[in-house]
Design goal:
Elements (H helix, E strand, L loop, with lengths): L2 E11 L6 E10 L5 E5 L8 E5 H7 L9 E6 L3 E8 L2 E8 H14 L11 H10 L1
Antiparallel strand pairs: 1-2, 1-7, 2-3, 3-4, 5-6, 6-7
Length: about 130
């Protein structure tokens, strides 16, 4: 299994003086090729979100997302990510360039459309049947 991890500074936008920068670890693993993990541990212990790689890629070109996750470019330099949960919505801003570089790295590891070649279907079936 290959992996890629990059720390990207994200701004938690609150609309008041509580807005702050967060150091977020963005991770990608080739054995879970559809997922990008955002680890907010530097801000809150065990705060981890898993987002769709396809959704993040789509968000570089146009507004994307339904449900708890929405992504949109803002002034072509920042990507806004809205994460909805039981406590409300967190609005985060990140450098669109940094996100694009990270996503380019994931596509070098597993090109879009070839994700199925990296999934261990036999192990997944064993795990499902064992549950």
């Amino acid at each position: 299994m290959e992996h890629l991890t990059t720390r990207i500074t994200m701004r938690l936008v609150t609309g008041d003086e509580d807005s702050r920068d967060l150091q977020v670890d963005w991770s990608y693993r080739t054995d879970d090729p559809h997922a990008i993990t955002l680890d907010f541990d530097s801000y809150q212990a065990d705060a981890v979100w898993t987002l769709s790689r396809d959704l993040l890629i789509a968000g570089l070109d146009a507004p994307a997302g339904e449900g708890d996750v929405h992504i949109e470019l803002f002034d072509e330099t920042r990507m806004l990510i809205a994460l909805g949960g039981t406590d409300g919505i967190a609005l985060l801003a990140a450098s669109a360039e940094a996100v694009a570089r990270f996503l380019a790295g994931t596509t070098r590891l597993v090109p879009p459309g070839l994700e199925h070649t990296r999934i261990d279907w036999d192990q997944g079936l064993k795990d499902l049947l064992a549950a």
